Amino acid sequence: MKSGRLSYALLSAVFCLASVSVSTPTSAQDVSFGQRLFQDKADCKFCHGAEGDGRGDPRSPGAAANLRQTMLNKLQLAEVIACGRPGTEMPHFDKYAYDDDTPCYGMKSADVGSDRPPDPHSTPLTRREIEAVADYILGAFAGK
Ligand code: HEC
Q1: Cβ–Cβ < 8 Å for 83, 117
Q2: 127 in a structural domain
Q3: Is the CB of 42 under 6 A from ligand 1?
Q4: Domain span at 91
Q5: What's the predicted TM-score (pTM) here?
Q6: How many distinct structural domains can be found in the chain?
Q7: Residue 70 and residue 18: Cα distance in Å, rounded?
């Protein structure tokens, strides 16, 4: 029965490790989800660089921000990602940004006029995706 006990001990050790790793599933998952969005689907890296340091593709427009130096909190990051930055090349990733129902920085289409940030060259993002990208920036780049 010695080996039976041993394997039980091993099994509970494995189980224990497994429960440690499932105790933080949301944040870990959100980071890799956010990472895929940043690096692939939304192609933020084209302008901001894979390292988030603002050194993207030389053909990318505008001087993209170095996200390692950002001072923005999650809410502010999500707002910039959803709304873009008026008058700059930072696109708005919320498809409905500046519509009557979803003003940005208190502005609707008529208010922002020709300063309206461009549509993304990649794809718009949902609210949940925008928050996951914001989490990824905070976890992987900000202050690094
Ligand atoms: C077409 C190029 C381009 C793409 C694509 C792009 N950005 Fe930007 N981004 C910029 C530029 C340019 C700025 C600087 C705007 C300014 O001068 O204020 C900026 C600024 C930002 C800022 C503000 C940082 C700060 O501290 O003020 C955040 C956050 C940001 N981008 C996140 C993203 C994310 C996330 C994505 C992808 C979902 C993305 N950007 C895609 C060009 C881009």
Answers
A1: yes
A2: yes
A3: yes
A4: 24-140
A5: 0.85
A6: 1
A7: 35
